[in-house]
Amino acid sequence: MTVYESDLPGVGKKHEVDLGDGSRLVIVTHNSGKREVFRRADADSDSEKLFELSDKLARQVGTLLEGAYFQPVQTDSIETLLGENTMLEWVEVGANSPVAGKTLAESDLRQATGASVIAIERDDEVIPSPGGNATIEAGDTLVVVGSSDACRDALSTIRGD
Amino acid sequence: MAGELLELGQLFVVLALTGAIALRLGLSVIPLYVVGGVLAGPYVAGRLGLPYVADGEVVTLFAEVGIVLLLFFLGLEFSLDRLLTSRTRITRSGLFDLAVNLPIGIAIGLLLGWSVVESLLLGGIVYISSSAIITKSLIDLGWIANPEAEPVLGTLVFEDLFIAVYLAVVTSLVLGGDGLGSLAQSLAIAFGFLGVLLLAVQYGSRFFAGILDVPGQEAFVLRTLAVVVPVSGVALALGVSEAVAAFFVGMGFATSGHREKIERLLAPLRDVFGAVFFFWIGVGTDPTLLAAAAVPLVLAVALTTPAKMLSGYLGGRVYDLSKRRSLRVGVGMVPRGEFSLVIAALAANGATTVMQEVIPAFAVGYVLVMSSLGTVLMEQSGTLERLVFRDEDASESTGG
């Protein structure tokens, strides 16, 4: 995916995303936080405004688009790219997971894979920055951060494959 | 006291009404605030025997704060780094803009037999486009998401920088008095003071960050004002442009890491005092003086509209835009507004009749015409593009 970023002095920033069919999605982020989203059919056309969102709404819609609430694809993990090679992943702990019932320290995830668990989501509750004595239960969702290799290893350990 | 408060009340009623009209008609507020000031001022409401807002000390002082805050925000938004990263393109399109438009204004003044300083003031008024009106139109028309937004906003950044230097020099020329000696002295004071201020801005980011490191909005706003207003006051007391001083202080605060918070919290204040400034410009304008300014006005509108379109077009080509989009850049640069009026307010402090009466009246007429004409041209640019490029292949593909 190619993203073009440019400054709009006095207004904010503009990001253009190549949609692959020659058209571009143009997102104007105002200094006020307001987002305006346009689509430009091709280089010669004018941008057509699709919608605008307040800062708060934009973030909420953003997490929806990201798939934080629902992942339609046949995978039970969600990933976000933090940097070039750093991923943030959400993974559910199955009933047969080898780490279910263990504390984080016992699971040895960080030593074995290099990825860290930065939060445990349990029902409606979130345990941020869990310590080594935090217990992982079946049904939890672990938020894991690490390089993409580390994340892949951590995921297979958690799933037990 | 009661009379003054009542006058101030009348001022805000008129501002609120004209603001509502602008919103309803989808126009920029700036020209309407000016018209509101003319109508509610001594020359129209006063002559009709109605209650009017006088060009009194309070309104003048509020307007002065308006100028300071307008330029403070300009400095806040101005980023030297941004200018430097795309300096070749901004500089080239900015130089086209400067080289075409400033000399035309100066030439019109000289042609009318005005002095060099008077002509220079006219040049500045016709040169500087309105960031406020243009940015609003770009957003309203959705051009903000098109490639033409970049040269337009880039050229405006160049204009902002130029106008800071210009105001510093011209303030000395207008206020510095007669004789080469006193002029040299006043220029030396101006550049000495602004130089010190610029050094403070360059090396004082810790000071600016520290001063705003305070919880609570009230203290934050007060501390910001406690730097901007006194520095501008010292500048004016020394005969240096208070507007440029405020611009530099804004640049200083931009490095503090609190830029967005300042913008959020002080924008309402800028809008209030800015509105009073535009109103005050109207209050000081005698519509019958517009007749005296008619000749320069007609000349300026007829010459500088196509000139801005040409320089904008060249600017668009610098950014590798298609001819069609480059024409839009030109159209987008046509509106003039707040800074032309700031220059006119400076001129009104001058010694000659031309400076005191003709130039301010000219500026008001010119801003009213150019802000409306520019906005209409932008809205109708589709028609204009078809007229200009009817012979050419419509699907020219150098855009993007």
From TrEMBL, chain A:
Pfam families associated with the record: KhtT_N, TrkA_C
Listed PROSITE patterns: RCK_C (PS51202)
Origin: domain of life: Archaea
Chain ranges of the RCK C-terminal domain: 76-161
GO BP annotation list: potassium ion transport
GO molecular function terms listed in the Swiss-Prot or TrEMBL record: monoatomic cation transmembrane transporter activity
InterPro entries, per database record: AAE_transporter, KhtT, KhtT-like_N, RCK_C, RCK_C_sf
Name of the protein in its database record: TrkA domain protein
Lineage: Archaea, Methanobacteriati, Methanobacteriota, Stenosarchaea group, Halobacteria
UniProtKB/TrEMBL annotation, chain B:
Biological process, per Gene Ontology: proton transmembrane transport
Pfam families registered for this protein in UniProt: Na_H_Exchanger
Entry keywords, A to Z: Membrane, Transmembrane, Transmembrane helix, Transport
InterPro entries linked: Cation/H_exchanger_TM, Na+/solute_symporter_sf
Cell compartment(s), UniProt: Membrane
GO molecular function: antiporter activity
Protein's UniProt name: Monovalent cation:H+ antiporter-2, CPA2 family
Topology term for the membrane: Multi-pass membrane protein
Top-level division of the source organism's lineage: Archaea
Regions crossing the membrane: 12-39, 59-78, 98-117, 161-180, 187-205, 225-253, 265-283, 289-307, 327-347, 359-378
The family this protein is said to belong to: Belongs to the monovalent cation:proton antiporter 2 (CPA2) transporter (TC 2.A.37) family.
Annotated Cation/H+ exchanger transmembrane domain residues: 14-373
A Gene Ontology cellular-component term: membrane
Main location per the UniProt record: membrane
